[in-house]
Amino acid sequence: MDKAYEADTSPDAAFARTVWQAMEPLHAVTYFSPESREANRAAGLRGFWMGYFAARAAPLGAVAAGVVEAAFYNFHPSMVRRAIPDAWGFATPEAVIGARTAAAAAALRRLAPSTAAAAPGLLPLLARVIGAADGAGRPLFAANRDLTAPEDPVAALWQATTTLREHRGDAHVALLTAEGLDGCEVHVLFAASEGGAPTATLRENRGWTEADWRAAAERLAARGLLATDGSLTAQGRALRTHVEARTDALAVRPYRDALSAAEASGLVTALRPLSDEVRDSGTIPFPNPMGLPPRRT
């Protein structure tokens, strides 16, 4: 088949955002479901944020705080250091991985009952995409990719969506840092670009103070990215559009390499009812720090 024809019919960059919106609710049960919070507590982790940092970082191993700060760079470093490395004294990464995976599977079975029937058909497609994805410069993706796949299909589906979610996220972080944006500035920029964004929620959930926020806004204004009223300038909008477009372009590559257009469309078609069930359950708050919209777009 002609190469140009193949490129014309393969998933494009817009598909990357579509499939992210279809997968993110499945992954996000690990943050918001009572099953996941209880699993972290039962594993020995102290409080929500220790559970968050330990569970998400566990595939990296018992790493130091600096590693987690780098990978989760939009959090204030002191917030990370209140949890890491102390978490590894309460529970090993292996124990945390087992607890988080089992809890996420239990949450999906409760919140999205269709997941059990859909998982066996979805897993081969997701495995091909993961196999085609490049791990270079993507530590959270590579660490999740190298975990042993769970035998339970629902747990394996959660792990696959998590792995691809981290693939997108790692590239997004690289793009933001390449633009000289620090961890607080990215939230200020996001809040300015999204009308009605929950500024206090973004700030507090990532450990930044009001003084941090003001200073970040001043730095962005000095770069010509924010106007005096705190709104985005044309330059600020262009920067945000560029970062989002490049994130989509990088995220779509493994789908383009591994799936035909029909397979990619079928993947989203199969994922959407599951993510809709999770959304409709009310478990994930909207708005949320992930930027996930309440309805698919």
Strand content: under 5%
Note the main sheet: none
Principal-axes geometry comes out as globular
User: Roughly how many Å apart are the termini?
Assistant: 33 Å
Alpha-beta classification: mainly alpha
Q: Output the number of helix runs.
A: 16
| Average pLDDT, all residues | 93
Helix content: over 70%
Q: What would you report as the Rg, rounded to the nearest angstrom?
A: 19 Å
- Which parts are unreliable, with pLDDT below 50 for 5 consecutive residues or more? 1-9
What is the N-to-C succession of helices and strands?
HHHHHHHHHHHHHHHH
Oligomer: single chain
Per DSSP E runs of 2 or more residues, the count of β-strands stands at 0
Overview of the molecule:
It is built from 16 helices and no strands. By secondary structure, it is mainly α. The longest helix is centred in the middle third of the chain and has 26 residues, at 153-178. It is globular. The chain starts with a helix and ends in a 17-residue tail after the last helix.
